C-alpha cells in the first residue's frame, strides 16, 4: 500500500513541476522575467510553497524553463535525424526550429540577458552542433542542399526569424513565409555564389 501511495505522490509532484514550468514560460513570455513567483504559482494552480519545493529560487526556475526550451530544439533535431529522407528531414527541422524561435524569441533574448552563462553549455552545445552538422551533411549528400550551405546559416536564419517575430498572429505567419523563402534559396536550383558566411559571438564555426 505504501508503494502505491508513494507512486501517487511522485506522480503528483511530477505534474506539479510540469504545471509550474508551463505557467512560468507563459508568464515570463507575457510579462517578463521579473514577475512575482506568487503570480506563477497562482497561474500553475499550486501553492507558493510547492513552487519553491521544486525551484528554490528564481534562478533555478529560469534555468529549468530555459533548459526545457533547449530540449525542445534538441528533440526536433533528433527526430529529423531519425527520418530516412535527409532532404525532408532538413526542411522539417528548419521549419520546426523556425516556429520555436518565432514563438519564444523574446523569452530567449531575456534568458540570454538574465543568465549570462546559459549559452555556455560545453558538451551539450558541442553535441547539438554535431547533430546539426550531420543534418546538413546528409541533406547535401542528396544533391538538394546547396554545397556552400553552412551550419552558421541556420543561426542566421533563426536570427532573421527573430527580427520579424512578435506576439501577433500576422507576425507568426510572416516568420513562416520567411522560412519558406529561405528554404527555397537553400536548394541547389538557386546555387549562385554567396558572400562569406556570417560569424556570431560564441559560435566558433568550422
TrEMBL record:
Residues 14-73 form the HTH tetR-type domain. PROSITE patterns: HTH_TETR_2 (PS50977). SUPFAM superfamilies: Homeodomain-like, Tetracyclin repressor-like, C-terminal domain. The keyword Transferase does not apply. This is TetR/AcrR family transcriptional regulator. One of its GO terms (molecular function) is DNA-binding transcription factor activity. Keywords: DNA-binding, Transcription, Transcription regulation. Residues 36-55 bind DNA. Coiled coil: none annotated. Pfam families: TetR_C_43, TetR_N.
